[in-house]
Design a protein that fits this description.
Chain lengths: ~120, ~120
């Protein structure tokens, strides 16, 4: 069990550039979540997938953000035209999605700094 | 909308002693779940303990236990026999029990930073 893997661990970019993050969930997990955590705050839900279908998006996910999960395996989160306010840690989590006993396993996150 | 409040930004405990972290929440729902997550410097969120709102019995997991007061909307975490490895950020989280097909939409508090003194 390799756990949830996120890449890169750190990303520094200039304002206006596009960035893409990758998340590899635990292999048999059908649900995948993205959260954003800013300094001094708890994580905030962004979006989630069941297999390849994106089933919900938070209002936090502006039109500059897009997430995909092709073939229901790994997922990517892209931010276009980055802004300084996008600086945060982006966390990915996965689960088997077994109803009330659903347990989320988190990755170690991608820390984004927008200069 | 549901909210989660952690009023203690930082706490400190002596090794082997007991510490209690506070959490209050606000909701109009009757079916929900509460969680405590630990986030060490490695940044990976780890589930410490969970509580179903319909259960009156407080959850326990080894040295970790909760005091769930449903009427007061309070959900505190007690760590007994504190160890150096317990030092981390602790987040209280809420999840609706009637949230469509996904129950992973967690609402987190701002966290409490716990230090353990040797």
């Amino acid at each position: 069990d390799t756990g949830v893997s996120q890449d890169p661990r750190h990303k520094i970019t200039k304002r206006g550039q596009n960035v893409t993050f990758r998340c590899d969930p635990i292999s048999e997990h059908n649900r995948l979540y993205w959260y954003r955590q800013t300094l001094g705050q708890g994580p905030e839900f962004l979006t989630y997938f069941q297999n390849e279908a994106q089933l919900e998006k938070s209002r936090l996910l502006s039109d500059r953000f897009s997430a995909e999960r092709p073939k229901g395996s790994f997922s990517t989160l892209e931010i276009q035209r980055t802004e300084q306010g996008d600086s945060a840690m982006y966390l990915c989590a996965s689960s088997l999605g077994v109803g009330t006993n659903e347990k989320l396993f988190f990755g170690s996150g991608t820390q984004l700094s927008v200069l | 909308a549901q909210t989660v409040t952690q009023s203690q930004p930082e706490m400190s405990v002596q090794e082997a002693e007991t510490v209690t972290l506070s959490c209050t929440y606000d909701t109009s729902e009757s079916d929900y779940y509460l969680f405590w997550y630990k986030q060490p410097p490695s940044r990976q969120m780890i589930l410490v303990i969970r509580q179903e709102a319909y259960k009156q019995q407080n959850a326990t997991e080894n040295r970790f236990s909760v005091n769930f007061q449903k009427a007061a909307k309070s959900f505190s975490l007690k760590i007994s026999d504190s160890q150096l490895g317990d030092a981390a950020m602790y987040f209280c989280a809420y999840r609706s029990g009637s949230y469509g097909g996904s129950q992973g939409n967690l609402i987190f508090g701002k966290g409490t930073k716990l230090s353990v003194k040797p």
